[in-house]
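Researcher: Before we compare anything, I want clean individual predictions. No alignment, no superposition, just each chain on its own. First chain goes here; please echo the sequence and then give the structure tokens.
Model: Echoing the first chain and its structure:
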Amino acid sequence: MMLKLFKSKIYIAVGLLLLITVIGTLGIKFFEDVSWIDAIYMTVITISTVGYREIVPLSDQSKVFIICLIAVSVIYTAFVITMITQYIFNEYSLIDLKQKRVKNKVKKLTNHVVLCGYGRNGNQALKKLRQYKKEVVVIEHDKEKWEALQDDDILFIKGDATKDEVLKEANIENASHLISALDEDTQNLFIVLSAKQMNNQLKIICRASTEANYKKMKLAGADNVILPEKVGGDHLASLVVTPDLIDFFDKLSISDGDTHNVRELKFNVLCPDDNEKSINELEKFNKTGCKIIGYKDKGNKFSVNPESDFILKKGSSVIIIGNSKQMQNLRANFELKD
């Protein structure tokens, strides 16, 4: 926003300079019998306050005109200096002021997501998280991206995410997830190591470029490691082999406005009394019309489409599917916020 305003003022400044040059040239040509080149030359040395001697002796009328031209030039110079100073001051003071407000907001957050890197992967991850109405704090060191983050009203921290103090500014101790989407694998590895030390309950998702680095990320403490090229290649191939199935899954998570058709629920949400139950015994859940299509136990082992007599164990989670109305019933019955 500030850059657009500054550019518009530059156009005004250039226009004024041309106008002053034209008026000065015409004035000198009118008052003195000189060529156009000499008139332009005298105007330029007057505006720039270089102070060379006049080409021809000036009449009293010319002297008065030159005095006025010099006064206008001084005012114009002051305008340009003020414009540049104001832009530099406003740009940095505005960003710093907003950063103070952001940091105060971030300090109060809990169970938020820290996103390191606002590149192509980070930008897409942010869009998806905002669709799910998740609180996200972005860490970005590239100054060119600050204005875009600021204009979109995104909580962001200026700095290098590989530094511990920057992660602390993002309130990493109270975050639930961290996504490291930087381009360099070494930087992502440093972030994983640092973040895990600060918050050992943190779930960490990061990107890697190679299979070798994938293993290193896992050893460092990352819960999930994504290989963008592999995921993209698999997706392209799947669109050839099973196009309708992939198209269905692509549109499944968000297809009815703001209602998500698939979601994950923890054991303690379905069984608030902390007693292990079968799916049949979940009366409150069964009234919603939603279906359980997946189950993950405490050891991260998955079961697909569990039977109705399947017992839900403590520390587990389930994958639920339903249409818009069924998901609304689920949110109402269990008082879910998202």
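Researcher: Okay. Second chain, same rules.
Model: Second chain and its structure:
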Amino acid sequence: MIGCEFMWKLGGEDLQGYFPVRSECQADVPRTRFKSRAGKTLSARRWHAAFTEDGHLDMERVLRRIQRGGIHPSIKGEVWEFLLGGYDPDSTFDERTKLRNHRREQYYAWKEECQKMVPLVGSGKFVTMAIIAEDGQPLEESSVENQEWLVKTSVTDKRVLQWMLVLSQIGLDVIRTDRYLCFYESESNQARLWDVLAIYTWLNPDIGYVQGMNDICSPMIILLEDEADAFWCFERAMRRLRENFRTTETSMGVQTQLGMLSQVIQTVDPRLHQHLEDLDGGEYLFAIRMLMVLFRREFSFLDALYLWETVVSDDVGYGVQSKQLCII
């Protein structure tokens, strides 16, 4: 792939080769520090050895290995499905196959439902401009240049209208997501991310779409080949993170975490806390993005995933602990 020659070599293995970076983006990407360590990192061999003959997984053994050295890039996707609670470690291979097939059927049924409203869903294309006016009336085609598709009739259903209105914002965020990775040089891969976010938004009107969800969803799209599997992994992640994105007129989703971060810094480094207070930064609002998207934009792709998996594996319920992230 053109522009993908640049890779880092760490610990004798070309780990960045699993997620190649566009050569022109080299200067803008944080240096990856994660290294695959023999005897500590969960390797493909150790992962497969953790299953019994019929498919039961020794989860405690796997978690201990992840806590010691993370997950090797070659198996991150399949391990994350278990880490996020998508599959019961006590289930068998046959039981998981049936569940996977059922979930895929369900996802593609939802996708077909969305496609009937907006044909671009599942087409390999996506929108970055409005497809309908805020009052539900069709836009004049002459007023929107280079638009792939526009709503042709009035939309009166409030839920449908709200969903259609946010699709362009999802598209704008998609083209900004991990754009330094060669993976997203492909418009079809960007469209897969847009599809998953659009369908999740349709199914969850109570929270809808909020900027930052794209950063949580992107790794799932990259790690899991089947779009339905990526959706369900994202859905599992959002069960634990959705409150981060819930904002009202009086509060923000990460407000509790900001307060926790303030307490941690005040305890660990009182002078830094006082300095931030003097700069009128004592409310730690500068950390909103870090906590909302779990440091996705502060670290390289590999390092962010390493952070996620070690924190999640350290929690008995397989959920991300705000206090742990604050301390990190």
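Researcher: What stands out in the second chain?
Model: Residues 15-246+293-327 form one domain. Additionally, DSSP finds 13 helices and no strands in the chain.
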